[in-house]
Design a protein that fits this description.
It is a multi-pass membrane protein. By secondary structure, this protein is mainly α. Helices cover 75% and strands 5% of the residues.
Length: 193
């Protein structure tokens, strides 16, 4: 396994295997969301639930993944009419596998305790700044940023592989459509679910 495989598994692994892994990852995202009380309100956006139920986690998560798949498939067919649905499904599902880690982070006791102490510090700024807590928060934020960049890289490379885009205009259109889809999905799911 080399760097290319890590950042673009779509060129190395069979599409059916990736689909199975992606579907298992989606089930894991739903179960993890039920355990942690979080749901995907769009790809790359996880939000807390006031009332946790399997339905309250599964429906928004599936809608957010499906909306990204549908929009990317339409865009992919516009850019290259040979774009296959399975490749777009794999792109979205595989890119979200590492994002599941975000759901679990609140369940790690020392991170939760650190967040509580840092919130207390903000409420009482005259207290001494807890350096150890600040260090943990910076480390956690760095890990989140690395995971997010990796996931976006997988997302982009999957779409690029599925559609064979090369022009910068197509890449800019992909970025704009992805951002717009994510924002609209967040708004709609927050409003209706």
């Amino acid at each position: 396994m080399n760097w290319k495989t890590i950042f673009n598994p779509f060129e190395r692994f069979d599409d059916k295997l990736l689909l199975v892994v992606g579907l298992l990852g989606t089930a894991l995202a739903i179960l993890t969301g039920y355990w942690t009380g979080n749901r995907f309100s769009s790809i790359y956006r996880i939000s807390r639930l006031d009332k946790v139920s399997l339905e309250a986690v599964a429906i928004p998560t599936l809608i957010s993944f499906a909306s990204a798949i549908i929009i990317l498939f339409i865009l992919g067919r516009i850019l290259n009419n040979k774009t296959r649905l399975i490749d777009i499904v794999n792109t979205v599902l595989i890119s979200q596998l590492v994002v599941i880690i975000f759901q679990v982070m609140d369940k790690i006791p020392f991170i939760k305790a650190t967040q509580t102490r840092m919130a207390s510090q903000r409420a009482h700024p005259s207290e001494a700044l807890p350096i150890w807590d600040l260090t943990i928060m910076i480390g956690t934020t760095s890990i989140i940023l690395i995971i997010l960049i990796y996931s976006i890289t997988i997302y982009y490379n999957g779409f690029k592989t599925a559609t064979n885009i090369k022009k910068w205009q197509h890449i800019a259109l992909f970025a704009a459509v992805s951002l717009l889809t994510t924002m609209i999905c967040q708004i709609l799911i927050s409003k209706y679910f």
